[in-house]
Amino acid sequence: MKTDHTLQEGFKVFASPEERIIYLTFFSNEEASDDNVRATELVIQGAQKALEACGGETCVALVDTVAVPEGVRVVFPESRTLYAKFIADERIQKVAFLGSNDFVASLIGTIGELTGHPSKIKWFSDVEEAKSWLKE
Q: How many Å apart are CA 76 and CA 96, to the nearest integer?
């Protein structure tokens, strides 16, 4: 299993309290189940801190998957459940995924079903369209 430090190099998460946006960018994806789940736990920890940085107010999230290499895109069921639980938080109003590929579409569909709120998740290939939807 990879170290937490190594896994954290695969993503960046921060909040913009002024915009009330959590930005999450993925640079890689872990193919091994234990690494995938641990990376998800670390992402969620970072996202929780970003959510708190928004002062407990509602916010939106922009998840950028564009930099994840083709062919290395897998999210194990336990990871999907963890993401769905975070997205279901009532403080998260909407989540825009950036990246137009079958992986993102499938992931969003699955997570949307798990959260019970599929309308709060949408995917885009254009960052400006994503931001516009988040502001609606």
A: 20
